[in-house]
Design goal:
The chain has 295 residues and is an alpha+beta fold. The chain has helices at residues 10-19, 41-56, 82-85, 90-99, 159-162, 164-170, 172-192, 198-207, 212-220; strands at 2-5, 24-27, 61-71, 78-79, 107-117, 123-134, 150-152, 226-234, 237-250, 254-263, 267-277, 282-288. The chain is built from 9 helices and 12 strands. The strands form 2 sheets. Strands 1, 2, 3, 4, 5, 6 and 7 form a 7-stranded mixed β-sheet that branches. Strands 8-9-10-11-12 form a 5-stranded antiparallel β-sheet. The structure holds inosine 5'-triphosphate.
Length: 295
């Protein structure tokens, strides 16, 4: 799969190549980038992806990302304005350490939000957070931006010392990419399958309504099956249910997406196994289980 990353930050493009296995990620070559005026990271990420659509035209996969560093003692600053706080690297770090001089409470977090547009302009999102604190002085040489002063929770070393391989597994961007893959599975399912079976299509739509369940699952259970309470709208009725999803990427040709869904917390109703090719088309769908009980 080939995607265009709508970003001017070469570090991000390099990270995404490693975060989306099997994808080729090319940076967007463009002038006249839009101002980042959104109220949220998601708004800015979407604006970058849509700008990419305007430049690259139809038929491409596009990814927009917006990220930032939020420092508790600074009321969440620089946050969404992290890139404009001061020139990236030394100057931004010096300004941050200056503002935090003498401050003992140094809790902070990195946030990343991703918006991906499919060639059909379906949208999938993913977000990720990395908690930590701001060090007293810069250390380490890998990563970029604020990495030399960001110490993740449970670690003694900065992200720049922990290195790019560590970032690939644990960073806010890595978490957002995993959540995006989970959400994309849902988008691809809705776009490509359910087949002629209206019931499964309807249930899938309800299952993924709005996507937040999938997004949360992707964040909480990036590698393993997870369950979460959710509400499914069955024949016009809102039914409390438990859902689970597991997306495993089977190299090199296809992803296997398993969806299990149960009504009334525990009464198993249906399990679907979706085998999805990397180009997004559905190879096969297997459905198991009994019809859901009417409540
Ligand atoms: P694009 O908008 O073109 O994608 P950018 O670098 O301006 O590139 P953002 O607007 O998303 O990106 O700003 C994010 C800023 O937050 C970035 O410039 C860094 O200062 C900081 N940041 C985000 N992720 C980071 C990371 O993984 N390591 C260090 N600093 C990071």
């Amino acid at each position: 799969m080939k995607a265009i990353l709508c970003s001017r930050n070469a570090h991000k493009a390099r990270e995404f190549e490693r975060l989306l296995p099997g994808w080729t990620v090319e940076p967007l070559d463009a002038d006249g980038w839009p101002e980042e005026t959104g109220a949220t990271y998601g708004d800015n990420a979407r604006a970058k992806a849509r700008f990419g659509r305007a430049v690259a035209g139809a038929g491409h996969w596009l990814i927009g990302e917006d990220s930032g560093l939020e420092v508790e003692a600074l009321g969440g600053r620089p946050g969404i304005k992290s890139a404009r706080y001061a020139p990236e690297g030394g100057p931004a770090i010096a300004k941050l350490l200056g503002e935090l001089e003498g401050v003992r409470a140094r809790a902070a977090r990195y946030v990343s939000e991703l918006v991906c547009l499919t060639p059909e302009d379906e949208e999938a999102c993913g977000s990720g957070v990395l908690f930590g604190r701001i060090a007293e002085e810069p250390r380490g040489s890998e990563g970029f931006g604020y990495d030399p002063v960001f110490v993740p929770e449970g670690e003694q070393r900065t992200v720049a010392e922990l290195g790019n391989a560590w970032k690939e597994r644990h960073s806010h961007r890595a978490r957002a990419a995993r959540a995006l893959l989970a959400a994309l599975g849902a988008v691809l399912l809705l776009a490509g399958c359910g087949g002629p079976n209206k019931t499964s299509r309807r249930v899938l739509r309800a299952f993924f309504a709005g996507g937040p369940v999938v997004r949360t699952l992707g964040e909480r259970f990036p590698h393993k099956p997870g369950t979460l309470p959710c509400t499914i709208h069955d024949q016009g009725k809102a039914v409390q249910a438990t859902c689970a999803t597991d997306i495993s990427l089977v190299k090199p040709a296809r992803a296997v997406v398993t969806l299990t869904e149960a009504w009334n917390h525990g009464a198993k109703a249906h399990t679907w196994f979706f085998f999805i090719r990397r180009d997004g088309t559905v190879q096969s769908v297997i459905q198991e289980g009994a019809p859901a009980p009417k409540s």
